[in-house]
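Appendix B. Raw example, untouched.
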Amino acid sequence: MAGVELEPIPGPDEMQPWAGADTWEGGYIEGLEFRVDAERRPGRTRAWIRALNPLVHGETCSPTADLVRLADTANGIAVRVSPRAWMFPNVDLSVHLFREPVRGWVGFDTRVTMGPTGLGLTSTTLHDERGPVGRAEQILTVRRLDGA
């Protein structure tokens, strides 16, 4: 009865490590491990992410909580413009899952679209190591940074 039209992505062992701190500053990024597709380009990335620390110290969360806590990262892994010259925060995040994920790496097949009037959209197919598990959508507001 199940049917999935979403394409799987190569596994984390088939992608290269990426230092997210080269693009973004801060403790959040430093607490993540990344693997990215060698063919990534501005606005389009396939990647795997896992957190190096538990969501709550000393506690084990559900695989769903582990996946959802990383979903907001999609907007930062497929940047279309430099975050040193532009800001493009998401003003919302919608996550829709069609099955419960398994624990481990979380996969992102992400595309970022920016329109001519300061609006954008980050669209992601979310994966676990068994394949596609759902979607995440983020509406963006795009603005040039002062002095950039």
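End of appendix B.
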